[in-house]
Amino acid sequence: xxxxxxxxxxxxxxxxxxxxxxxxxxxxxxxxxxxxxxxxxxxxxxxxxxxxxxxxxxxxxxxxxxxxxxxxxxxxxxxxxxxxxxxxxxxxxxxxxxxxxxxxxxxxxxxxxxxxxxxxxxxxxxxxxxxxxxxxxxxxxxxxxxxxxxxxxxxxxxxxxxxxxxxxxxxxxxxxxxxxxxxxxxxxxxxxxxxxxxxxxxxxxxxxxxxxxxxxxxxxxxxxxxxxxxxxxxxxxxxxxxxxxxxxxxxxxxxxxxxxxxxxxxxxxxxxxxxxxxxxxxxxxxxxxxxxxxxxxxxxxxxxxxxxxxxxxxxxxxxxxxx
Length: 323
Hints:
Blueprint: E1 4-8, H1 18-22, E2 26-29, H2 32-38, E3 47-48, H3 50-55, H4 58-73, E4 78-82, H5 91-98, E5 104-106, E6 120-124, H6 125-134, E7 149-153, H7 159-170, E8 186-188, H8 200-211, H9 217-221, H10 228-244, H11 247-271, H12 276-289, H13 292-295, H14 303-320
Parallel strand pairs: 1-4, 1-5, 2-3, 2-4, 6-7
Antiparallel strand pairs: 7-8
């Protein structure tokens, strides 16, 4: 079996010592155009996934690239060229590492990252597109923090940016103009907290900010039990608002209940027991499982039949749950 080196192209040029890096290797590129503009003409790229990334659903495209790279390493040494940075912002590399694949990293130049001040992180556009393509049926991407700068790598093609942009919009981010730099990085500046007010992610991070060591003393002093009366009170107020039928009042009280739930989730996260994303994923999966007449081809012509299906699925879940 051959070995694998991952080469980040960001910040590199034709004058680099490519012979020492690529000699004797099967050279493959996630994006042929970026690689061709960086490599000397004498170096041939044998494989790329440009067409697949523009025609194949992102989850399948990721699996295809990972599978192809692994297959190639069965027969020869391979150099996988990524447009950005080898160890940062490439979901294919992350998936290879998750599989326990041993590889060498030849990173690009970190200095080519878009200049951002303060907290920021890098995420692959393909990973965002994958999450959007799977939504809501299979898991969730960790909530993005719209109050921190986000650098999206590998922003090229047509299908991937389209789906990634939808995912970013779900997070409440302002993504215009969406023009990447020469290294396929798209920088999204941090959003002021109040401008991100319509985002569940923003509210989640505001709650987390209140709980920080330099946050609000009252919020920091709370425990799951001490905060429980607040949840009871706000739930009662929401019930009363619904009974009264005043839309503005309902929305306000619903927000208060949501804050209480997020506060409980934040305290659980601090204890290392679960994250709000786990609760969202559990609820999503449960709704899909218990509505097979909507998502899995079962038949239900009446509300009574729906309840029968719900109870049957619920009973099956309990029967198969670990004792």
